[in-house]
């Protein structure tokens, strides 16, 4: 949370409180308390759905676990309330971890259904375990939150306590969105495979986001228990989860402010229906469908768009062509990446898919600090080889070593963290994020992405975020695309999207850069500029493996060439000798010598 | 001996409900195969079918089979309308939006039914009286034979449809390769609409034949739907027999655990099974499901 935001939040809440104190209206306070409690729970949905992009349908169940844990501990076991709340947090986090680790391997519908099922199971335990939970009628007589002689009773003290917690939750959520952890979550939200190739351990991050999200719900549940002093299972039923999800979407699930709006709606929507209260569920269904079509970013998104429109007209940025931009910056010289270039050895590499040997017994080496081109006709096994090196596929056999370190069996994110970066044949930028954020995403490969440390040490996390931004800007300056930093990536001309991808790879400090068909979709002038850029990168100390169809580019930049054909190694060596190899000419160049047909 | 008798009775009861889960599971599979969508509102078709039959019987005074025909027709029209108005308007197909839209539709159906028919539990009379037949000492309600007959007819009809008609083959090809199907001139959008019509009709029918065994209420669809989904993933979606086998397994498991352990956790059994299968065997027990 930035300082101005915190001050603004405190001021608003303070003014509100003062106004009510003068008016002396406990009903309004109770409404605000309700909103505060539920906004903490809905912020949990922001974390897992808004940030990490995982549709979890049983959020209220975790609120229920938290609520019942503290109720049972204080009422049945006589624990003091603070201990009850702490045990609630622990139980919720443990349950979320144990359930989340396997469940989060699922995606989409399956994840949604599995979490829905989890919520039903929790609900039936709350109803069924009546020795502890008092069954469907719920638990009464729960004590207020109290520490020693300090008892928090009545709307006013609760108001203070609740909004201190809301401020804390808001700060934590905003801090995450403005850290490398936040960037990592946003990447895996949109493209898990890309996240992996940028060094993000997707499973660990999703689980952490899920546990944190559930913990928010659990805390909200625990406060609710000591505030309302009565709980029953239907408050935390599956239908309550749907309602919460709906208001989260309606408020704007991408920001914790949306969660606060959503919690307010949770209170006011039923009242706004007035005489039509019976139509509530049907109306919610309609609203659900309508916001999916017409208001995907919720009310907060709508406010943001209006504010953007009022604040400034988008400055017209000259759409320079890629060739000119790269020519302009070529004079800037080497792009320092401070990484020690590595050498890559591939030996006896094989990979079969059902009924097809995509790569068979292939071996070659990529010497440090050079550009090695991997060529071959379509279906020769080039892309498979790249995917094997970067760890997306597991080879059937063979060795892949980076400076002598075995890469086989390492996960793709671990390989990325060892300094293997790549670009994609079909540019994989995240279109709705800015160019700067896209480039910063590459910093994930070097960043500390532990969610817990980002929470516990916000200063360090912020520092890391700033470093990433500075380095990204430097690299973008070096490549001439800094002026596009704040544009959404989808608005970049295609050639510059290629450049942005290279920038994203460079910020990882690659020791080996895999460039997958970078000339695809570029015109001649752009291809020439790209070649110059690749040479500049090699000169500044990066080992490059270039997978390419465009022979002009290959001839212009390659220090050596490896030729694949039908998954097998056809030739390897210096460009001059390889391109004169009769077999290569026949198999690949269609019988016309390269220097003629070029 | 009484022990065995009890077990047998419980098992037979479980097989009856299991068939229902299987029919609902087939409804899930038809839509999923053709469109790639898991329709979270699938169970609501069953709820609506049962409630509308009851309405046609009691308010319109139709005879039972005319009431059933009317209810199935209306639910089918609702299914098509839902697909045309919402699903087909998803310009960029994203799983997240499909989840929200089908969830919204499910809430709408539930809320609408509550307003129209109230919150009470209703009961639908059995098609041919509430008698029972004794099979090896277990009392089997006559209604179960209706369920059995309809399930057999549905499976035979689907087999014919998907293997012997050009239209059915075209629908299957959408499941295999949507883009390829488009390239050979198959109207994929029409196939998706038809798949929703079929699964709505099937869901309604399942809800109607099941209703006399339990009761009908506005909020029964969601849980019934998830159980149908569990049946589908238990059995695998390769054939239309798979969900039925999965449904039978789930029905017996539920019935036995309710009979021997506690009926409180009856629903939880199905959902615990769902979580276990999805996480341990994401491809289903018998078939290939890509749980992604």
Low-confidence stretches of chain A: 593-598
Oligomer: heterodimer
Structural class of chain B: mainly alpha
Determine the number of helices of chain B (DSSP H or I, runs of at least 4 residues).
11
Structural description of this entry:
The complex is a heterodimer of chains A (598) and B (292). With 598 residues, chain A is an alpha/beta fold. Chain A has helices at residues 3-23, 26-51, 59-75, 81-103, 108-128, 130-133, 155-177, 180-190, 192-197, 202-228, 238-251, 256-272, 280-294, 298-311, 322-330, 382-389, 412-417, 435-441, 451-456, 458-479, 494-506, 524-539, 551-557, 575-580, 582-587, 594-597, and strands at residues 145-147, 150-152, 344-353, 356-366, 371-375, 397-402, 405-406, 420-423, 512-516, 543-547, 560-565, 568-573. In chain A, the strands form three sheets. Chain A has a six-stranded mixed sheet with strand order 8-9-10-5-11-12, with helices on both faces. A four-stranded antiparallel sheet of chain A has the order 4-3-6-7, covered by helices on one side. In chain A, strands 1-2 form a two-stranded antiparallel ribbon. In chain A, helix 18 (435-441) runs parallel beside helix 21. The longest helix of chain A has 27 residues, at 202-228. Chain A is elongated. Mean pLDDT of chain A is 89; it is low at 593-598. Chain B is an all-alpha fold. Chain B has one domain (2-119, 140-280): ABC transporter involved in vitamin B12 uptake, BtuC. Chain B is built from eleven helices and two strands. Chain B has a two-stranded antiparallel sheet. Chain B starts with a helix and ends in a 12-residue tail after the last helix. In chain B, 49% of the residues are buried. The chains are: A alpha/beta (598), B mainly alpha (292). At the A-B interface, helix 4, helix 5, helix 11 and helix 13 of A face helix 4, helix 9 and helix 11 of B.
């Amino acid at each position: 949370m930035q300082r101005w935001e915190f001050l603004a939040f405190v001021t608003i809440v303070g003014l509100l409180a003062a106004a009510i104190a003068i008016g002396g209206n406990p009903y309004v306070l109770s409404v605000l308390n309700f909103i505060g409690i539920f906004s903490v729970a809905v912020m949990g949905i922001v974390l897992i759905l808004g940030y990490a992009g995982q549709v979890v349908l049983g959020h209220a169940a975790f609120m229920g676990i938290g609520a019942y844990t503290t109720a049972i501990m204080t009422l049945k076991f006589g624990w003091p309330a603070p201990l009850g709340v702490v045990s609630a947090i622990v139980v919720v986090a443990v349950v979320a971890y144990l359930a989340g680790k396997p469940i989060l391997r699922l995606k989409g519908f399956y994840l949604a259904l599995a979490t829905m099922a989890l919520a039903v199971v929790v609900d039936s335990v709350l109803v069924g375990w009546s020795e502890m939970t008092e069954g469907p009628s719920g638990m009464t007589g729960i004590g207020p939150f109290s520490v020693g002689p300090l008892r928090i009773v009545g709307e006013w003290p609760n108001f203070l306590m609740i909004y201190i917690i809301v401020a804390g939750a808001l700060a934590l959520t905003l801090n995450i969105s403005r850290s490398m952890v936040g960037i990592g979550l946003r990447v895996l939200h949109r493209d898990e495979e890309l996240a992996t190739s940028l060094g993000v351990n997707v499973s660990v991050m999703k689980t952490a986001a899920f546990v944190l999200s559930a913990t928010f719900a659990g805390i909200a549940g625990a406060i609710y228990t000591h505030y309302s002093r009565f709980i029953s299972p239907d408050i935390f039923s599956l239908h309550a989860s749907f309602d919460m999800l709906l208001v989260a979407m309606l408020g704007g699930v991408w920001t914790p402010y949306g969660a606060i709006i959503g919690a307010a709606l949770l209170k006011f929507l039923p009242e706004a229906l007035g005489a039509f209260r019976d139509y509530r569920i049907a109306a919610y269904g309609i609203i659900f469908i309508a916001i999916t079509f017409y208001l995907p970013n919720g009310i907060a998104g709508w406010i943001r768009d209006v504010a953007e429109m009022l604040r400034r007209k988008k400055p017209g940025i000259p759409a320079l062509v890629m060739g000119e931009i790269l020519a302009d910056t070529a004079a800037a010289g080497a792009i320092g990446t401070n990484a020690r270039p590595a050498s890559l050895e591939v030996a006896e590499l094989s990979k079969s898919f059902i009924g097809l040997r995509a790569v068979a017994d292939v071996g070659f080496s990529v010497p440090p600090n050079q550009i090695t081109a991997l060529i071959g006709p379509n279906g020769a096994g080039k892309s498979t080889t790249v995917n094997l090196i970067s760890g997306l596929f597991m080879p059937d056999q063979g060795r892949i070593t980076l400076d002598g370190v075995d890469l086989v069996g390492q996960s793709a994110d671990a390989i990325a963290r060892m300094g293997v970066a790549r670009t994609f044949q079909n540019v994989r930028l995240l279109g709705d994020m800015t160019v700067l954020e896209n480039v910063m995403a590459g910093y994930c490969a070097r960043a500390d992405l532990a969610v817990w440390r980002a929470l516990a040490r916000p200063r360090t996390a912020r520092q890391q975020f700033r470093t990433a931004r500075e380095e990204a800007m430097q690299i973008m300056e070096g490549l001439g695309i800094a002026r596009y930093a704040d544009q959404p990536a989808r608005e970049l001309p295609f050639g510059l999207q290629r450049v942005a991808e290279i920038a994203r790879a460079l910020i990882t400090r690659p020791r080996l850069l895999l460039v997958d068909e970078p000339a695809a979709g570029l015109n001649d002038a752009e291809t020439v500029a790209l070649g110059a850029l690749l040479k500049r990168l090699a000169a500044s100390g990066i080992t490059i493996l270039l997978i390419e169809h465009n022979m002009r580019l290959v001839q212009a930049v390659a220090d050596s060439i490896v030729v694949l054909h039908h998954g097998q190694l056809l030739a390897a060596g210096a460009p001059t000798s390889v391109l004169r190899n009769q077999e290569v000419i026949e198999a690949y160049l269609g019988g016309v010598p390269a220097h003629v047909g070029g | 001996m009484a022990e065995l008798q009890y077990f047998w009775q419980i098992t037979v009861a479980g097989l009856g409900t299991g068939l229902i889960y299987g029919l609902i599971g087939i409804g899930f599979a038809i839509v999923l195969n053709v469109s790639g969508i898991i329709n979270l509102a699938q169970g609501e078709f069953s709820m609506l079918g049962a409630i509308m039959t009851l309405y046609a019987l009691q308010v319109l005074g139709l005879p039972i089979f005319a009431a059933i025909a009317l209810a199935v027709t209306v639910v089918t029209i609702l299914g098509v309308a839902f697909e045309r108005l919402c699903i087909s308007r998803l310009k960029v197909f994203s799983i997240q939006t499909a989840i929200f839209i089908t969830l919204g539709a499910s809430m709408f159906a539930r809320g609408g039914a509550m307003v129209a028919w109230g919150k009470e539990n209703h009961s639908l009379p059995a098609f041919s009286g509430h008698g029972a037949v004794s099979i090896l000492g277990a009392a089997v309600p006559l209604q179960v034979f209706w369920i059995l007959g309809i399930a057999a007819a549905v499976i035979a009809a689907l087999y014919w449809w998907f293997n012997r008609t050009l239209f059915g083959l075209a629908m299957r090809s959408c499941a295999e390769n949507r883009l390829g199907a488009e390239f050979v001139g198959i109207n994929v959008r029409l196939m998706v609409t038809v798949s929703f019509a079929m699964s709505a009709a099937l869901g309604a029918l399942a809800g109607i034949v099941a209703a006399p065994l339990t009761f009908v209420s506005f909020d029964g669809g969601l849980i019934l739907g998830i159980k149908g989904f569990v049946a589908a993933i238990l059995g695998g979606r390769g054939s239309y027999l798979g969900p039925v086998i999965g449904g039978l397994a789930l029905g017996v498991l539920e019935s036995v655990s309710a009979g021997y352990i506690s009926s409180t956790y009856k629903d939880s059994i199905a959902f615990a099974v769902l979580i276990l299968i999805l996480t341990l065997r994401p491809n289903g027990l018998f078939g290939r499901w890509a749980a992604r």
